[in-house]
Amino acid sequence: MKITNDKIETDFPFCNVYLECGEGWYPLIWGCMKEIQKYCSRVDISPPKVLQIKEKFGGLRMYLAQIDNSGENPLLLNSFYDIMNIVERYELISSLYCQMCGKAINERTRVNYHAICESCSNIKKNK
Ligand SMILES: [Zn+2]
Question: Where are the domains of the chain?
């Protein structure tokens, strides 16, 4: 099934943002949100709100709101770090895939620092 900005918003109401990156990364974003959702339901907290998702220096950047920890619950803070670990893992993986078509790229076919493969870069130029 094709993953769209709408599908991500519908499946994960805590991720109600306009995605500022190519759609080749949408499946990664969907996977990341799925993991966050699963994790949060396992530890019984509500998922932190996603504030922004964009491309920066050839990688995905996902910004999340802090968990409300006004009760100063140390377990809640621990959960937030667990969630940040999930996010960081997906951010690292993203730089290995073309953000336009989603295919794996390597240093040789990478165009500048934008995580766009050579063939997608040529399509862009010819437009
Ligand atoms: Zn591509």
Answer: 5-126
Instruction: Tell me the C-alpha distance between 71 and 43, whole Å.
Output: 16
The predicted structure's pLDDT at residue 12: 98
Q: Which whole-number Å values give the CA distances from 34 to 2, 85, 104, 106, 123, in the listed order? A: 16, 14, 21, 27, 32
Pair type for strands 59-64 and 50-56: antiparallel
Distance from the alpha carbon of residue 66 to the mean position of ligand 1, in angstroms: 34
CA of 70 to the centre of ligand 1 (A): 44
d(CA 82, CA 40): 10
CA of 45 to the centre of ligand 1 (A): 37
pLDDT at 110: 66
pTM listed for this prediction:
0.89
Q: What is the distance in A from the centroid of ligand 1 to the CA of 25?
A: 11
Ligand 1 centre and the CA of 46: distance in Å? 35
User: What are the mean pLDDT values of the chain's consecutive 10-residue runs (127 residues total)?
Assistant: 94 97 97 97 93 94 84 80 96 93 80 80 73
